[in-house]
Amino acid sequence: MADVNRGNRPLSPHLQVYRLPIAAITSIMTRITGHALVAGILLIVWWLAAAVTSPGAFACADWVMRSWIGFIVMTGAMWSLWYHLLAGVRHLFYDAGYGMEIESARKSSTAIIAGSVILAVITLILFFAL
Amino acid sequence: MRYVTPLKAAEGLGASHTGTQDHWFLTVTAVALLVLTPLFMIVVACAIGLPREGVIAYFGRPFPAIITALFIIVGMLHFIRGTRIMIDDYLQGGARKAGIIISVIFSWTVIAVAVYALARMGLATLVLV
User: Fold this and answer.
1) Using CB atoms and an 8 Å cut-off, which of residues 25-44 of chain A contact chain B?
2) pLDDT class for A9, splitting at 50, 70, 90?
3) pLDDT class for B1, splitting at 50, 70, 90?
4) Burial class (CB in 10 A: 0-12, 13-18, 19+), B71
5) What angle (nearest 5°) sits at the alpha carbon of residue B115, between those of residues B62 and B129?
6) Which residues of B touch A5 (CB under 8 A)?
7) Does A52 lie at the interface with B, CB-CB under 8 angstroms?
8) B11-15, B92-96, B118-122: which has the minimum mean pLDDT?
9) Which ranges form a coiled coil (chain A) (predicted)?
10) pLDDT tens readout for residues A33-77
């Protein structure tokens, strides 16, 4: 690609000495939450499979599901799912060409963090109240 | 600031040999999951805490069964493409191939186990009726 103008293009940041802006942090968090939430799906699928296997298998999976380990995994996966959903919505807007400016990316980053925490708290309240 | 890259290097289906089909698949499944995610959360929240017979009867009903099946299948297919992007970013050569293969096998295993469990619950409910 010898005919590309290489002189006037932005440099990739050196990550060890670069303080990541909030838009970069929320971007990498999209990837992390997308992979981490599969822990919750695994727990649910194991729990479903155990229910059709035997009473003993279900008792084991159900104990894990209702223990503090299950609570941490399920709550973490639930927040990750909300976060990944909101970040995914932002990607749909990015694809359509909206919200790419630095200031709006900063605002949407704050909205994603705050929105995912609010939705997670509402989900927990509804789960324990109903 | 010019970001222009030579057109001749991106003609046809480009360097990926599959064009933008992964990106488009992620977009379609993302929109589907936008609807499925809140529904799946409600379904799971209603099921946790039930005794074994209750869980089997609950997922034997159409709405919980279909929402769960759709969420797990669409979600894990979305996951295959999502991990693929991460694998392409961080791994090269043989490790990249191994990562992709493991990701695909893992995802389809999760789908198979979930569909098997849901089918068993549906049939168990059918026998009771």
Assistant:
1) 31, 34-35, 38, 41-42, 44
2) confident
3) low
4) buried
5) 40
6) 2, 4
7) yes
8) B11-15
9) none
10) 999 999 999 999 999 999 999 999 999 999 999 999 999 999 999
pLDDT, greater one: B79 or B19: B79
Q: Please report, for residues A69, B5, B119, the alpha-carbon distance to residue A57 in angstroms, rounded to integers and kept in the order given.
A: 17, 57, 18
Do B56 and A52 count as a contact with CB atoms less than 8 A apart? yes
Distance CA(B129)–CA(B62), nearest Å, equals 14
Task: Note whether B66 and B46 are within 8 A (CB).
Answer: no
Identity of the residue in A34, A59, A95 whose CB atom sits nearest the CB atom of B27: A95
The top-level CATH class assigned to A19-129 is mainly alpha
Whole-complex ipTM: 0.88
Domain ranges of chain A: 19-129
